[in-house]
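Section 5: illustrative case.
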């Protein structure tokens, strides 16, 4: 078990006496109690009322955060011909086809998002087992398998976030940086939760979003009311 630092323990003690009654007040606490020298990311762990063992209840989607993520996104595009040119003009960091597949098969994976034109997905399938577990496999449901290369690359650069539940039925998603401040983080979180609710599987029963816990990279987890922004 890892030993908690002094500042982390102090933050937990402060939280016990804090009046955290809303998303904004919770995020204000996160911002004010960040104690590292770097700009910490702020993440949400969202427990869903789904049976993750059933394929039809998989929750997957993406959302354009109003204020972006604060992270530099390196975007890889599998494309040829005119779509390769579109990717270059849109600012993609890596563009290619067979050459990129070979690099990935060799262990290279220095990018945060991958896009592919539909005609190249057969080729991309060669590295599906490498990209899938990392959440980097292009997918039509989140808009990363498309001929609109310019549009999706621009969105990813601006702060589009993809999400998918894990085996425990939990979605883990970043929604900004401590430097954003509570107000912008609240707006980003609201957009994320709204997009998540829109992906509710028809067969999911009962309460869909059961619990939300937010935290900065090195901060304490704070449970917030999942019903503040919208109702199931």
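Designed sequence:
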């Amino acid at each position: 078990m890892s030993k908690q630092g002094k500042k982390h323990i102090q933050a937990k003690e402060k939280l016990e006496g804090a009046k955290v009654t809303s998303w904004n007040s919770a995020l204000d606490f996160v911002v004010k109690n960040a104690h590292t020298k770097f700009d910490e990311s702020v993440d949400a762990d969202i427990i869903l009322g789904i049976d993750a063992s059933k394929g039809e209840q998989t929750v997957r989607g993406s959302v354009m955060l109003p204020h972006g993520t604060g992270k530099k996104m390196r975007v890889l595009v599998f494309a040829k011909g005119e779509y390769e040119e579109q990717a270059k003009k849109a600012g993609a960091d890596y563009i290619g086809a067979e050459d990129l597949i070979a690099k990935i098969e060799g262990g290279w994976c220095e990018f945060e998002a991958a896009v592919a034109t539909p005609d190249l997905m057969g080729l991309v399938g060669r590295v599906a087992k490498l990209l899938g577990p990392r959440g980097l496999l292009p997918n039509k449901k989140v808009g990363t398998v498309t001929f609109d290369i310019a549009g999706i690359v621009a969105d990813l650069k601006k702060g589009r976030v993809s999400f998918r539940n894990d085996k425990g039925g939990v979605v883990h998603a970043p929604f900004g940086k401590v430097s954003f401040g509570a107000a912008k983080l609240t707006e980003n979180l609201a957009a994320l939760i709204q997009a998540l609710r829109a992906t509710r599987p028809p067969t999911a029963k009962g309460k869909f979003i059961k619990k939300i816990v937010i935290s900065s990279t090195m901060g304490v987890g704070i449970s917030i009311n999942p019903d503040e922004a919208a109702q199931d």
